Amino acid sequence: MSTTPTSEHQQLAAALTEGLALIAASGSSEDLRGVMSSLTGKKGPIAALKSSLGKVADIEARKELGQLVNEALVTLQQASEAHSRTLRAGEFAAQIASERLDISEVAMSAQATRRRGRMHLVTQATERLEDVFIGLGFQIAEGPEVETDFYNFEALNMPPSHPARSMWDTLFIESDVEGSVVLRTHTSPVQIRVMQDWPPPIYAVMPGRVFRKETPDATHMPVFHQIEGLVIDRGITFADLAGTIESFTKAFFGEGFTSRLRPSYFPFTEPSAEFDIRRPDGSWIELGGCGMVHPHVLRAGGLDPDEWSGFAFGFGIDRMAKERHGVDDIRDMYSDDIRFTEQFS
Ligand code: DAH
């Protein structure tokens, strides 16, 4: 077997070296494909060597050279495949990078124009009310919106068919015993639940959503909010009630405001009153009801009226938010109309 380098050998070695250099220098898959087709194509150096094989007279030398040519081809192809993998990985990464949806960038640019949201006017009012009552030493309690007739009416001194039930246009929930489950018409049932659950003395306020069968108009909604107050202790008198209402009025509305109580009727309090708030300009806002907790109600809450006495009050929150912000139509507060909500941000 001849080992003497012939000019074909030299050409092959040169073609291989140059080919490998060209492959390594290809900057993209496309370039590489071009390089490979010119290296291995019909007009390429390898093809030229193959066709010159016929000129090698010595059969062994021709065989050997043919084998070397094939090996060179395989070497070039392997180099090309290896480089191609590297190139494709880079190209894929570049594609990913270019097609990437940069959410952080969107968020950043949105931040420049985004306007801050705000809590609903009623939520703001509720939180302020809670703050003021906490400042006066009250705790917060909550009860269910779907109530039984017992808590909504009966325990509040309204046995079945009591005429005062008609003070609340009630929405009923379908149930096995017709009329026994209601959407609470007021937050007063939470008084009973608190009395049953907490040992006295009790100083609690109970905010929440209430429901009435009502057609919406400028001052009424079928769904609205109330806050209930309950104080149970030894020796509580009507003077404590009046003093608490007055303290609350000044703390919530300001020093220039005062309160008054007018005799009224509620089945769960005796005596009962309505309370109004006097603005600094002398005009009055009707706010809610209150009174001394009726002995029947104390008993329904599991308390002995000979040992404990107390007062309760309740009023609408939506009305207060409406007053505070000068909203003409209460329905606007629930319209979700941005032109309305924007005015308060
Ligand atoms: N629950 C009454 C209503 O919705 C308001 C009320 C009046 C609550 C007197 C009270 C109270 O706690 O003592 O009309």
UniProtKB/TrEMBL annotation:
Arranged from A to Z, the UniProt key words for this protein are: Aminoacyl-tRNA synthetase, ATP-binding, Cytoplasm, Ligase, Magnesium, Metal-binding, Nucleotide-binding, Protein biosynthesis
Question: Which PROSITE patterns does this chain map to?
Answer: AA_TRNA_LIGASE_II
Annotated Gene Ontology cellular components are:
cytoplasm
Q: Does the keyword Ligase apply?
A: yes
* Reactions catalysed: tRNA(Phe) + L-phenylalanine + ATP = L-phenylalanyl-tRNA(Phe) + AMP + diphosphate + H(+)
Its principal location? cytoplasm
E.C. number(s) listed in UniProt:
6.1.1.20
Provide the GO biological process annotations: phenylalanyl-tRNA aminoacylation
Domain spans labelled Aminoacyl-transfer RNA synthetases class-II family profile: 129-321
Tell me the cofactors it needs.
Answer: Mg(2+)
Q: What GO molecular functions are on record for this protein?
A: ATP binding; metal ion binding; phenylalanine-tRNA ligase activity; tRNA binding
Its annotated compartments are: Cytoplasm
Residues annotated as coiled-coil are none
Assembly, in brief, is: Tetramer of two alpha and two beta subunits.
Indicate the family of this protein.
Belongs to the class-II aminoacyl-tRNA synthetase family. Phe-tRNA synthetase alpha subunit type 1 subfamily.
Database matches in HAMAP family: Phe_tRNA_synth_alpha1
Return the protein name. Answer: Phenylalanine--tRNA ligase alpha subunit
